[in-house]
Design brief:
By secondary structure, this protein is mostly helical. Helices cover 57% and strands 4% of the residues. A hairpin with a 2-residue loop joins β1 and β2. α3 crosses α8 and α5 crosses α8.
């Protein structure tokens, strides 16, 4: 079998919802073009306003994959929503701290509020001792999360699985526009703007989402 045909079959196999479970390796480096289709500006960190915060698509992909494993993201519809919100909120992985405006403690790749960052940090066993030392300082809590790529890119999946209702999650699993809109308005509690929708549409296309 020609290698290109084999890769094409593999690509279809991991992206189509015919499979009983979402294949979690679609964003590994060998298929990072899928992620770059969503975040084309993440092809480089050259010229990034805050270089220490920037991650390329190649660097981000393994952390995103791990977050799907850790928090049980098992369908393309859910994955597309998580990737889209991180892409939008982080300026295509250029930021993990909210600088505009400077809101102390707001950050990670989905730009969670300090309240949710504290909840998130409290859920991570590996941060127990360091979190005790950080106390209630929102900047210190955020620093613990952003210092670790797994935690930094894990916030979006954590938020979906722990803070969204079962109804919202079920809607995302359908891959429909209505399901995504409900996620934005009923869980993220913001407006489903055209700019946000554009990222979701790119993510949905890259991951083979086939909702209505």
């Amino acid at each position: 079998m020609h290698s290109s045909l084999a890769l094409g079959i593999l690509w279809l196999g991991v992206l189509t919802p015919i499979l009983s479970a979402f294949s979690l390796n679609i964003l590994e480096k060998r298929t990072s073009s899928a992620l770059l289709a969503v975040v084309p500006k993440a092809n480089t960190c050259d010229g990034a306003p805050f270089p220490q915060e920037c991650k390329t698509a190649d660097e981000a992909a393994p952390f995103i994959n791990q977050s799907f494993r850790t928090y049980g993201i098992t369908t393309p519809g859910e994955a597309a929503a998580v990737i889209a919100i991180m892409a939008f909120e982080s300026g295509e992985f250029k930021y993990n701290i909210n600088h505009f405006p400077d809101t102390p403690g707001q950050g990670t790749r989905n730009m969670q509020s300090p309240e949710f960052n504290l909840k998130y940090a409290q859920s991570i066993p590996g941060l127990k001792d360091k979190l005790a030392a950080a106390g209630s300082d929102p900047k210190a809590v955020l620093a613990l999360l952003t210092a670790n790529g797994e935690y930094d890119f894990g916030s979006g999946a954590w938020f979906l699985t722990t803070q969204c209702s079962d109804t919202v999650k079920a809607g995302l699993k359908t891959g429909s526009l209505a399901g995504w809109q409900s996620y934005i308005t009923d869980c993220i509690h913001t407006t489903a703007t055209p700019e946000r929708q554009a990222y979701w549409e790119r993510a949905a296309k890259a991951l083979g989402v086939t909702g209505n």
